[in-house]
Amino acid sequence: MIDYFSDRELGKQPPHTEEVSDEVWEGIRGRISALIDNGAFGESFPETCRDDRGTVGTDRTSFWNVCKAEIPHLPEYPEHEKPDTTFKILDLIQFCHRNVSSPIQLDWHPHFRHHHLKFDKQSGQKAFHEDMNTIFSRNRIAFQLLPDGQISRILPPEINHLIACCEPSNEDGFEKLFDNAKKKIRNPDPEVRKEALDHIWDAWERLKSLEKPGDKNKAESTKILLDLATSTPEFRKLLEQEANELTKIGNAFWVRHSETNQISITDPLHVDYLFYRMLSMFFLLLAARRRTP
User: 67 with 95: CB under 8 angstroms?
Assistant: First the structure.
């Protein structure tokens, strides 16, 4: 990404929004239009020389027709009109990344006054990746375009830190559920992030059985696990209360089940809060298991 003077002097500001404003959209739109104009999508959507001597640019109509087929309900003129959701803008960025290349001019065709082109996809994708992430970063948008073309959410630093500090449990069932939760909480779609709560609460049920496997032994296994975490009676009582409360949350809210009498979680901030709360318990208990001989 571009190393702006203000970032060096003042420090980069952390992300604070998941919305693409009109001003940011204009920047993204302008960048895509410029790439169409210079032929950067010509490898996937070639405009060909009328003398059949190769590609000379991007077929604009073909580009947008395929784009609208892959991303339904885009505006009629998506190069100029802002899509109605941030998700569609993110999908558009992914579509562009998959199809962009760096155009390299070959011979000049004087009759039609154009160059014939060849393409370098790797350098084109790298430049597009850097451009989009510069726009996201400078506007404090909590997304990033990954080198493989996927869009990932930038987690709040507190969640990211705890995830990084949670050591493996060496139990495959727990690790699979926990890994799924970590993957889904990074998804740009808030609906997918709700699924992260399903996985992390299922991982909680699995964690409570690690010391003594089997559903019938879960209460005893949980007791052993909490005892490993502290020898202070007052704190042990607090941990037990928290463990019981976390289990109740999983049953009362639309986390691990979907019965009609459950409370649905709709606010993405609430999803982050619950995920962080469970993650804090994981961090403590996994650390306690790790330091126990």
Answer: yes
